[in-house]
Design brief:
The protein is 32% helix and 24% strand. By secondary structure, the protein is an alpha/beta fold. The strands form 5 sheets. An 8-stranded mixed beta sheet has the order 12-11-8-13-16-17-18-19, with helices on both faces. The chain has a 5-stranded parallel beta sheet with strand order 2-1-3-4-5, with helices on both faces. A two-stranded antiparallel ribbon has the order 6-7.
Length: 421
């Protein structure tokens, strides 16, 4: 796979984005049809480049019908147009889905024995690989080294999903769902040539709202939907990071290429974050973690009794996960980011919380019944421990996510990522 630094395609704002969809020879090739449909229906000009093996799973006629143009399959077809060079040069994005272990190996070693690998060598645009293979193949040291090589060169290699594989096998190696791959590709396209600031980095993001049970039926909770945390996770993946998302009680689809750890309570969230944090370069605590929990859990449903007022609910403090992570950095240089949802005197409350928690950055936003929670948009000010502040105007939560990662990346600096990444 060619380095993304170099001559870029000249952008024309009137052009439709050009996407090259590479398809490797795996059973998951049928899912690429849905990915192709999403690109074409959203106005992208898509050229499909299947390998010879891929055509055993989905035929050339299917790709041509869905894309509206012939599927490029061989280096020797239309030689006068020099397709092995022209296709990559013309692309705004190359996405390989599924990417088999063989395709990853050939791309990492710079082989060019078919049209797809030639295209990867000539592309000077963002490149996304969506791997799909059996667990043993994904976990093999050779595959892991090939993935690390591609990521170091600037490619985005999505983490495969965990689930049902070919036959009765279950494990990590399943192709992420097409809508997840599509969403990540849209984020990559939005940034143009992807920033390399998070390539090889591991980041931990918490999202959603914890729930503290009162009895088997009721709980104390909050209005957080998890949308901002999910935007942070998806954006980090699009910028090349390996992402662990600790998700508390969300109803959102898993972001493509992200490892999701579901939790319920504040104590479960603390356990999951502390487990993931030791090798993380950054921890971003976007979840709304309950400050208190009931002192006693009723094993049976609390009944309403005629003529009697309910017993008061005694509360005890939950652990302060953000302060704990910030105080006990798992590794030197780890960047810790907190979130503050405030209703009154927002900036003053945010600066006080930043000092109290000891984190590097604090994202402060004003919340209310009809503001922020559950909305696709957000508005915030990112406060820094060194006294700086970065306002983020009202807009999509992905825009705020990019600002947060810009600030995190600047603090991580240009040092090499950990060995083995």
């Amino acid at each position: 796979m060619a380095d993304t630094a170099g001559t870029q395609k000249t952008a024309d704002p009137t052009d439709r984005p050009t996407v090259v969809l590479g398809v490797s020879g795996g059973i998951a090739a049928y899912k690429a049809c849905e990915l192709l449909r999403r690109f074409t229906e959203s106005g992208h000009d898509v050229r499909v480049v299947p390998t010879a093996s891929a055509l055993h799973f989905v035929g050339e006629a299917t790709w041509a019908a869905l894309s509206g143009r012939p599927a490029a399959t061989e280096v020797w077809a239309d030689v006068h147009e020099v397709p092995h060079v022209a296709i990559g040069r013309a692309a705004d994005l190359v996405v390989v889905a599924p990417a088999t272990a063989d395709t990853l190996a050939r791309a990492a070693h710079g082989l060019a024995d078919d049209l797809l690998t030639n295209t990867l060598l000539t592309a000077r645009c963002p490149v996304v690989f969506a791997p799909a293979m059996h667990t043993e193949m994904w976990e093999h040291p050779a595959t892991r080294e090939n993935v690390a090589t591609l990521r170091r060169r600037g490619a985005v290699v999505i983490e495969p999903a965990t689930g049902r594989l070919t036959g009765a096998d279950t494990g990590k190696g399943r192709l992420p769902e097409p809508e997840e791959i599509y969403a990540l590709c849209r984020r990559v396209l939005a940034r143009g040539v992807p920033a390399r600031d998070l390539t090889g980095r591991h980041v931990v993001v918490s999202a959603g709202g914890t729930r503290e049970p009162l009895d088997p039926v009721r709980y104390l909770g909050n209005r957080s939907s998890g949308r901002q945390g999910y935007a942070l996770a998806a954006t980090a993946a699009a910028r090349g990071a390996r992402v662990t998302l600790v998700a508390a009680n969300t109803a959102l689809p898993d972001p493509g290429g992200v490892t999701v750890v579901p939790v319920g309570t504040a104590r479960q969230l603390r356990e999951a974050v502390l487990k993931a944090a030791p090798d993380a370069d950054a921890v971003v605590m976007a979840a709304a973690v309950a400050d208190f929990r009931p002192a006693h859990y009723a094993s049976g449903k609390i009944k309403k009794r005629d003529g009697q007022d309910p017993e008061p609910v005694a509360l005890v403090r939950n652990p302060d996960v953000l302060a704990e992570v910030a105080a006990e950095r798992a590794r030197p240089g780890q960047v810790v980011v907190g979130f503050a949802a405030e209703t009154d005197d927002v900036l003053a409350a945010g600066r006080a919380k930043l000092a109290r928690k000891g984190c590097d950055l604090l994202v402060v936003n004003e919340v209310g019944e009809d503001r922020t929670f559950g909305s696709p948009d957000n508005e915030a000010v990112v406060l820094a421990a060194d006294g700086g502040s970065t306002p983020v105007p009202h807009g999509p939560k992905e825009a705020l996510a990019d600002t947060v990662w810009d600030l995190v990346a600047a603090r991580l600096g240009q040092g090499a990522p950990p060995a083995g990444e």
